[in-house]
Amino acid sequence: MLSPKGKFIVVDGIDGSGKSSLLFHIADYLLEKGLDKNRLLLTAEPTDGLFGHEIRELLKAETDPKANARKFLDLYVRDRREHVKKELLPALVAGKIVVCDRYKYATLAYQSAQGIPVQEIVDLHKGLPVPGLALILDVPASIALERMQADKRRAYLEKFERVDFQEEIRGVFQRMPGFFPGENIQVLDACRPLREIMPDVKKLLDAFLP
């Protein structure tokens, strides 16, 4: 694998934690600091590719959050490997700053909650790019669900978007630094509004980026 020259940032957490909003706030901050927009890539998983499409169809069709754990694991890992090959790694090798909504941390949280052993999921991600900074947004599942229900753009809730299951996933996200020792994983209190979270995020970004 080529040695990346760019910087890789991930925003992750349970559904409704505010990942997408934070991603755009990060982009705005980096551009305000003078980053050339051509050196910034905003991306997300699951992707719009074949595997990402299949994931979305399954999420809409199923209701049991524990069902099809291995199928979901296989699809998420295949989608991620394709994402790395086609978009993430080329951007990093080109020296870009990549900010991604969801990555391997989500797969570990969701699929381990479905019953897949943690170490098996960790092993499947060996050899993939390691983020230089991962921001995990921590919020109680009940609050996250209220946010999702208030979002007029959401026509329905997916199979994983149940309070009991999301709270289980939240517990895994809270322990994420222990699953990937040596990685720069920061768990942030996302009960706060974004305007209160951003000062903490800016400090982390300033320390990570030259």
From TrEMBL:
Keyword Kinase: yes
InterPro entries associated with the record: P-loop_NTPase, Thymidylate_kin-like_dom, Thymidylate_kinase
Family matches, as Gene3D superfamilies: P-loop containing nucleotide triphosphate hydrolases
Gene Ontology, cellular component aspect: cytoplasm
Residues that hold ATP according to the record: 13-20
Domain Thymidylate kinase-like: 11-198
Record GO terms (molecular function): ATP binding; dTMP kinase activity
Primary enzyme class: transferase
Catalytic activity: dTMP + ATP = dTDP + ADP
Listed Pfam families: Thymidylate_kin
The EC number(s) this enzyme carries: 2.7.4.9
GO-annotated biological processes: dTDP biosynthetic process; dTTP biosynthetic process; dUDP biosynthetic process
NCBIfam families reported in the protein's UniProt record: DTMP_kinase
PANTHER family per record: THYMIDYLATE KINASE, UMP-CMP KINASE 2, MITOCHONDRIAL
Protein known as: Probable thymidylate kinase
Organism: Candidatus Iainarchaeum sp
Gene responsible for this protein: tmk
